[in-house]
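Ligand-bound model needed. glycyl-adenosine-5'-phosphate.
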Amino acid sequence: MSETAALAELAKRRGFFFASNEAYGGTAGFYTYGPEGAALKRNIEDAWRDLFVRELGNMELEAPTVMPEAVFEASGHLEGFDDMILECAECGATHRADHLVEDAVPDIEDAEALGTERVAELVAEHGIGCPSCGAALAEEPVEEFNLMFGTNIGPGSGAPGYLRPETAQGIFVEFPRLKEYARNTLPFGVAQIGRAYRNEISPRRALVRVREFTQAELEHFIDPERDRPPIEAVEDVEVPLYSASAQTGDGDGGVERHTVGAALEAGPLESEWVAYYLGRSVEFYERIGIDMDRFRYRQHLAGERAHYAADCWDAEAEIGGNWIEVTGFAYRSDYDLSKHGEHSGEPFTVFRQYDEPRTVERAVVDPDMSYLGPEFGEAAGEVADALEALAGRDRSAFEGDSVTVELDGETHAVPVETTGFAVEEQTEAGEHITPHVIEPSFGVGRLVYSVLIHAHGTDTVDDEERSFLELPAAMAPTTVAVVPLMTKDGLDERAEGIAARLRADGFEVAYDDTGNIGRRYRRQDEVGTPYCVTVDYETLEDDTVTIRERDSTEQKRVSADDLSAVIRRLVSGDALSEL
Ligand code: GAP
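Prediction:
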């Protein structure tokens, strides 16, 4: 059985995750996290919050998942958040046309960049058939399909809205308020963990491509001319880099390990801010249990980058022989805030104070409204605004006897002597700038999936095959399972008391008294519980219990009174053999 098939079976049987709504035939692209999976996911989210919010001193918010259409007009999602769709005329199945081409043509890795026409040609040239029924697809059109789920806000269809396709927009639209909380001082970061929705054409690979998923995103707002990251903190961190040149054949074709400092100095890292977050994130991936031998940072190829993105890298985890993007790191420049500023008319800027006040020449106007009023009637105010904008843009327009402004496609001539045009010296304390954004964007479901795949293994214990999850103790859904040797002679009551005390001390505890003891250990190994505590007859005599370690299967007796302290040491990294 492949590692992904084995994990899917385990995930369903032991309650990590499973396809939703199966009682009604299932809904492709939606997964439910069972009790074990929900706990693992929560631990991963807590680890993310602990580093990217608490340790790095950022803010966290929680925005709605439904947003009005105007937001997505501004962000560009309405116009361009599309994938290529191809529908089979024979069976009606829909497919991602670019994925069909990538699967069929070994040399093509990013078919989306080729455009719909070329992809349709490739489908025909390579005789690609429908993966569902085998019918030829050569004659079918390849079209753009917007991935957003639409809805109506309130009754009727007058206020269209969309389920957000990324949590980021919930942060960007609140920038005017968030900058107040940051006391108008850059840099500052705002994080959010929440659901995002994409009507994926072909959901696949379990949690990898789904229609509803959790993102953990950080938007770090900076002054691009003044702010630098504390790069010293990560300079010596080693990062596995798969550069654009290695991918296109100019390099040696593989992953190279460099320190962040060296990769910034000699390439391929370009942006200090992106480099900083690649370095910081290594700590996070290690903490949650990603196998760093099955992990790389891949640089986007030029054609892959969004038009606003200056430097982009993806963190990728290897799963079943495929590299899966688990995080996108992007330097988004001032694109998002500028767009929201333009569309909303609100100030998506911050005031940058100069070190010293500066004296500058400014072209100003002071229109004579007793002339503009009678001449332009209701439009007089707009003419005055247009004159002011023109003076700021092009003072030479005021050099003749009259100046021309355009309003709603109509031109209006105004005598210069009535505009009050003048060039004045003004002293300014600063200027308004649109911050730039660095965005690490993590897909939590993909992290859960990668961690599970990387943790899953089998070995032989006591001549029996054992399936286990080698999860870091802090990520495991259950930290300690308490198992009484027998459910008689007071052993079960003693064990329940110990379990209650461990719970009161803050541990995630399972109590398991069914089946033979070996079977109970196997059950806990399979859901990744790092420690089992066995209560036996000796416990009744001397108040000691046995602790069993999942990975080594080693066992040791400790005093029941010391149990919480011992488990705390184990969780923080001490080995049982060292105690
Ligand atoms: N705000 C930037 C953004 O949303 P993205 O690369 O489209 O960037 C970020 O998404 C992360 O979200 C990805 O790296 C991936 O882990 C996760 N993700 C995206 N689409 C997904 C899907 N359909 N199913 C599961 N996770 C997804």
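The chain has a mean pLDDT of 95.
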